[in-house]
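User: Fold this one for me? It's 6-phospho-beta-glucosidase.
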Amino acid sequence: MKGFPEGFLWGGATAANQYEGAWNEGGKGISTADVITSGSHTVPRRLTYKNVKTGETGSISAFGPNTKIPEDCIPAVIEGEYYPSHVATDFYHRYKEDIGYMAEMGFKTFRLSINWTRIFPNGDDEEPNEEGLKFYDAVFDECLKYGIEPLVTLSHYETPLNLTIKYGGWSNRKCIDFFERYAKTVFKRYSGKVKYWLTFNEINIMEFAPFIAGGLADPSPQNRAQAAHNQFVASAKAVKAAHEINPEMKVGQMLAYQPSYAYTCDPDDQLLVMELSKNTLFYADVQTGGKYPAYRLKKYEREGIVLDTEPEDFELLEKYPADFLSFSCYGSSTFTTHKDVDQGNGNFVFGVKNPYLETNEWGWATDKNCLRIALNTLYERYHKPLWIVENGIGWDDKKEEDGSIHDSYRIDYLRKNISSMRDAVNLDGVELMGYTMWGCIDLVSAGTGEMKKRYGFVYVDRDDKGNGTLERTKKDSFYWYKKVIETNGADLE
Ligand code: BG6
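Assistant: Here's what I get for 6-phospho-beta-glucosidase.
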């Protein structure tokens, strides 16, 4: 079987707040992720806050479009609550060991995020924190030692909390300047070490979870639209700055994308899918395509949303679109206008149950064609190089008495998915830069805060309450993926 083109970037992906821990070490400030507790697929994660006048504390659901910080309250770490990001799986102290595992599997790339608050603890600081900069120097040097190319996300659901408290989050245009300062600082510092960058992880999540995506204190539709606009402008400025600092650098967009299917051939279902898809594609139309699409401007007009813009915004968007389009894709979603259909119960997953697909414990469906469909759809629309930066399956892995972990379900899932993307490349001619499997070393789930929703090739001994030694153990999939990389995707057996 034909594998992938030479130079294909195989690897794995992580995010600082789910992986690093050391939440208050090395001069790091507090991020929005650090005030979110753990949950499960039925109990939502909570955002904790305290009332600045009375000192009373409380919490609200952190996910969803309606997370609004109550009046006189600020998000805060509350004693006695458990926050999974605080220790996570301790990459901060174990990066050498972990990068060693990645090298052993033959990784060509490693996707990680810089925790913005390690560099600018409050987001609006004038000067960066040298200790934070040094940490990532050490991480990148360790990667390069093994020939692993870092792929760095600048903001992965970890906005400096101070930007929420002081400015209301990304709905405030001041965040554009703070982000630009941060981006320029790391571009200059790591020029020559990091070639590939992403600006905002799953930028379209602004639509569904504005506190997570943009640290919004008030999630009104007006604020969400403004926050998205501000992130678009910030991304364009980052592209401009990166190209000026080092023309070798490439800055990509990162979109949460999965194919959407109509449950029936009822034209109303088809129209529904078309409409819902726009809520995702809009974000790529602007950031990768360079222009606001007419359908979105009409929607804003209907809803009375008026964006606060500067005259140069639109020129920037057009002149500095993303160099490539990366996306996460775990499966597919199915939608219908019919009410008598099993609604399914996935966390962070939308739509109804697809009777043709099997789901995991969290309701996420394995779809053997989703990557080929996603890659074709996005390539046809944008004609830009693509990069799958998240794909994988969460599973409550069991460690046997002899210490082995037999995750055949993960191998099966990955085999189907990699085969699907191989067809997109070899049969359809899609230009694909790389593939980074999500959560290559076990880390905290973003959606639930659990540890038991594991994705990794390497198991980490830690449970949902924060117990465990953090010791690492290779799973069966570790050896399988090593062979996939060795054969450049030709051998998936
Ligand atoms: C993506 C996020 O939405 O999905 C990751 O970018 C996240 O941060 C991943 O971890 C998987 O979701 P979950 O909820 O299973 O962790």
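One thing worth pointing out: The chain has a mean pLDDT of 97.
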